[in-house]
Design goal:
It is built from 4 helices and no strands. The protein is mainly alpha-helical. Helix 1 packs across helix 2 and helix 2 crosses helix 3.
Length: 83
Amino acid sequence: MSTSGNTGPLGRPRGIGFGILMFIVTLHFYSWYWVFKTQEEIKQHTGEGLGGVLGLVIWILLGGEGLGSGGFRRSCLSETARS
């Protein structure tokens, strides 16, 4: 019998509609929470990965932050700088 690398408990399911609503209501701060929790759950479940804090920091540094309003503001600023 082969053993799988999954050792910890599964993460908590989160609805897509709830995530979108929270993203809008919290002005995209929920996305930081979502990334933190997802990274932490992956680390707990498989024993691999970055974990919550480091995963969140890397996500922000690599531009995941741009998925929210921050990316829109940056693109508007760069457009005005070009003019």
